Every structure is written in C-alpha cells, then in structure tokens.
C-alpha cells in the first residue's frame, strides 16, 4: 500500500501543533500508519521537522501570493496577509519553536524569501507614511511572526476564540506600527 506523504505530513502537523513533544510513535498513530512506515518516509524526528518546514514555507508563500502584499494600502495588505496565514498559524507556531531550524548559519532560503517579502511590505508602509520609521522592517516582521505564533497558541488552548485570531493579531500589530500624526499627544 502506498503511503500518502501529504496525509502523513498534515497528520504530523496537526498533532505536533497540539503536542510539540509527541513521539514518532504518536505521529505514526495519528497518521494511521506503523512506526516502521513512518521511519521509511522520515528517518527520524529531524527529517520529519524539516519536511514540515518545507510544508510551512510552501503554505506561507501561497498565503503571501494570495494576500497580494504589493497592492493597496500597506495596512490593508497586513490584514489580508494575517487572514491568509491564519489557517496555517498552528504549524507556523510549532516551527517557530523548533530551534534546529534556526541554528547555525544555514537558514532555509524559503524563510529568507518570506522575510524579505514581509519586510518589503513594512518598508512600503513606512515609505507611504502609514507605519512608523523608528521600528525597522526586520523588527516588524519578527513582531508579526511572534504575534501569529502567540495567537495560534492562545486559540489552541481555548483562551482566544478562533474568530478573533485575525482581528486581534492585526489590531495589536498595527496599533504599534501605525505612524501617529505629530499632534497626537497620547503616550508612546
């Protein structure tokens, strides 16, 4: 019987986003296959996490394409991006905690492409006067990743309603990123 690799990856992602410490036996059970079959597909946890990384990158790149970050006001593009990423946020939250993906000097090129596109969105917002210029595009990108991961965990643990994911993430990010006009006397 042929193993559906995509099914195995999505099953692993679903389990690991709920229980990041799940064993390979638990991953195999979640996918409905034996541990030996899982091991034939992925030599170990590292190989599985790397395959999940590739899936996460593909989903992020698809979300970026669908969000059209180059179009319209930058704040609207951020809203579209968060909405497009939302279905994949649990996997991204899991990947966000996997230090092995970010150790050493070799970061996956896919993350670099994604980082650059998101930073370009923030740069565009700064150039148009929508976003503060005292916060670097790299920092705003990292803040977005952190908020996406935090929101995914909060939803998974039942502390935040799933319907509030996009609104709460966008409002917190844009609340800090938006440029205030010079007459604004509120605390910064």
Structural overview:
- The structure is a single chain.
- By secondary structure, this protein is an all-alpha fold.
- Helices cover 66% and strands 0% of the residues.
- The chain is built from 9 helices and no strands.
- Helix 1 packs across helix 4, helix 2 crosses helix 3 and helix 4 packs parallel to helix 7.
- Coarse shape: elongated
Average pLDDT number: 89
Q: What is the H-and-E element order?
A: HHHHHHHHH
Secondary-structure-derived class: mainly alpha
How would you briefly describe this protein structure?
This protein is about 65% helix and about 0% strand. It has helices spanning about 5-20, 25-30, 35-40, 45-65, 75-85, 90-95, 110-125, 135-155, 165-175. The chain is elongated and about 60 Å long.
């Amino acid at each position: 019987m042929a193993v559906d690799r995509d099914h195995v990856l999505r099953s692993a992602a679903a389990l690991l986003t709920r229980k990041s410490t799940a064993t390979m036996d638990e991953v195999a059970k979640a996918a409905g296959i034996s541990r030996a079959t899982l091991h034939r597909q992925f030599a170990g946890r590292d190989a599985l996490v790397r395959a999940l990384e590739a899936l996460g990158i593909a989903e992020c790149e698809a979300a970026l394409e669908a969000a059209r970050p180059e179009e319209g006001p930058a704040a609207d593009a951020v809203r579209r991006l968060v909405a497009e990423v939302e279905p994949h946020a649990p996997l991204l939250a899991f990947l966000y905690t996997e230090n092995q993906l970010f150790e050493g000097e070799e970061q996956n090129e896919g993350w670099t492409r994604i980082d650059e596109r998101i930073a370009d969105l923030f740069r565009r917002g700064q150039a148009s006067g929508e976003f503060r210029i005292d916060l670097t595009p790299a920092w705003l990108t990292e803040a977005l990743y952190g908020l996406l991961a935090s929101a995914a965990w909060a939803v998974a643990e039942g502390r935040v309603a799933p319907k509030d994911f996009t609104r709460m993430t966008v409002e917190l990010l844009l609340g800090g990123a938006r440029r205030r006009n010079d007459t604004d006397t509120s605390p910064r």
